[in-house]
């Protein structure tokens, strides 16, 4: 389960506006990747291009050998069955209860009987902690529950690739932590390839196996979590540590005057690399690595205190 997504030289423009240029990366099969970037850098456009809802101006997206950026509608229709998508607002039908919302893709795209549908829907509702809420309408539940219902619906066709757009938008930090734990647990159970678009630095630091950063119309960096969290590259270090000092300004890049006024101000030291979230039942995930493994393998000394469960367990490379 879980298939690789290979993106090569992808460029997207709307008219004369370039959104991003020459994006190349591979989402490893079965691993969790996060895409970060300042507002308006085209993260949602990237998700929509991966699933073929938007056509790129150039480049390729290979999934199981099919270039979905350039294939026929019929092939795209087949490949789309591999995807589950959780949109930002959950995209629930307001007049249907949660059960019918979650059952919707099965009734639309399969010939399963109502009793088979019931088994699948209840399984996904259990996975997302929604048993007992089947008869609630989307307007009667909290934002966190709506996201989980959207997730249950994204899971009913057993996706190989799960695309998740800003799961933390509108959620408080506690609910965000719960949904992050749910992603880790789900990833271990279904072994699909996850791509999460987020603004939440905590999510980016603790959840994924890989991190990408879109900035100023290009992919600034994509790679293993520890690589980006120990990177001194100014854009990456500034964004991943939520600093004001660095090249990213209030609206995209700082101008020459702003940068000149910061001359001589050193970037703050990198904070410790946190431990990655683990599954709640200890089940291993395909993308999970030993804490500090990437740093050790690549001769990188992580900031002091990295990978500490508590002070006594600090791991140094
Ligand atoms: N269908 C469209 N037609 C024209 N322009 C579009 C279209 N969709 C998105 N854009 C533009 O593409 C740019 C990137 O939008 P996108 O929503 O992908 O950014 P984002 O990084 O997801 O932002 P945010 O973090 O604020 O959600 C924006 O300038 C937006 O106006």
From TrEMBL:
PANTHER family: INTERMEMBRANE PHOSPHOLIPID TRANSPORT SYSTEM ATP-BINDING PROTEIN MLAF, PROTEIN TRIGALACTOSYLDIACYLGLYCEROL 3, CHLOROPLASTIC. Pfam families: ABC_tran. Residues 280-289 have a biased composition (Basic and acidic residues). Residues 5-241 form the ABC transporter domain. This is ABC transporter ATP-binding protein. InterPro entries: AAA+_ATPase, ABC_transporter-like_ATP-bd, ABC_transporter-like_CS, P-loop_NTPase. Residues 268-317 are annotated as: Disordered. Keywords: ATP-binding, Nucleotide-binding, Transport. One of its GO terms (molecular function) is ATP binding. PROSITE patterns: ABC_TRANSPORTER_1, ABC_TRANSPORTER_2.
């Amino acid at each position: 389960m879980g298939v690789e997504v290979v993106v090569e030289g992808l460029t997207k423009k709307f008219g004369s506006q370039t959104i991003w240029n020459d994006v190349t990366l591979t989402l490893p099969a079965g691993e969790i990747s996060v895409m970060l970037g300042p507002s308006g850098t085209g993260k949602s456009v990237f998700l929509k291009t991966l699933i073929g809802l938007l056509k790129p101006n150039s480049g390729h997206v290979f999934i199981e050998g099919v270039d979905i950026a350039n294939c026929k509608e019929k092939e795209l229709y087949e490949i789309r069955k591999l995807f589950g998508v959780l949109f930002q607002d959950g995209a629930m039908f307001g007049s249907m209860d949660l059960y019918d919302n979650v059952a919707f893709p099965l009734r639309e795209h399969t010939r399963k009987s109502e009793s088979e549908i019931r088994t699948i829907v209840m399984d996904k509702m259990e996975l997302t902690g929604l048993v007992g809420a089947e008869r609630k309408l989307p307007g009667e539940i909290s934002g966190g529950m709506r996201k989980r219902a959207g997730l249950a619906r994204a899971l009913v066709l057993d996706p190989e690739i799960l695309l998740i757009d800003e799961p933390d938008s509108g959620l408080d930090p506690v609910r965000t932590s719960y949904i992050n734990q749910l992603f880790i647990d789900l990833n271990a159970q279904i072994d699909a390839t996850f791509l999460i678009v987020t603004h939440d630095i905590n999510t980016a630091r603790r959840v994924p196996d890989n991190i990408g950063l879109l900035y100023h119309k290009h992919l600034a960096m994509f790679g293993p979590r520890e690589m980006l969290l120990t990177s001194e590259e100014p854009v990456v270090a500034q964004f991943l540590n939520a600093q004001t000092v660095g090249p990213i300004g209030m609206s995209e890049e700082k101008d020459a005057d702003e940068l000149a006024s910061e001359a001589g101000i050193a970037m703050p030291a990198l904070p410790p690399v946190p431990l990655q979230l683990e599954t709640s039942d200890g089940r291993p995930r395909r993308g999970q690595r030993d804490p500090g493994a990437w740093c050790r393998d690549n001769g990188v000394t992580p900031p002091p205190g990295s990978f500490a469960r508590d002070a006594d367990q600090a791991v140094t490379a």
